[in-house]
Amino acid sequence: MLPHIAEYLAANSLSEASFPIRLHSPGRINIIGEHTDYTGGWVMPAAIDKGIEFYARRIEGSSLVLHAVDLNKSQKLPLPVTGKTGELWVDYLAGIVEQFQQMGQEVPSLEIVFGGNVPRGSGMSSSAALEGGMAFLLNEVLVAGLSRPELAQLSQRSSNEFIGVPTGIMDQFASLNGSPDGPILLNCDSLNFEPISAEVPGYSWLLVNSMVTHELGSSEYPVRVAECQEALEALQKVFPDLEKLSHASPDQLAVVINDLRPVVRKRANYVVGENIRVRQMAQALKVGNVSKAGKLLNATHAGLRDDFQVSCEEVDLLQFMAAENFRGAVAGARIMGGGFGGCTINLVRSTELNFLKAFLKNAYREAYDKTPEFYEVNIGAGTKWL
Ligand code: GLA
Question: How much is the pTM?
Answer without folding.
Answer: 0.97
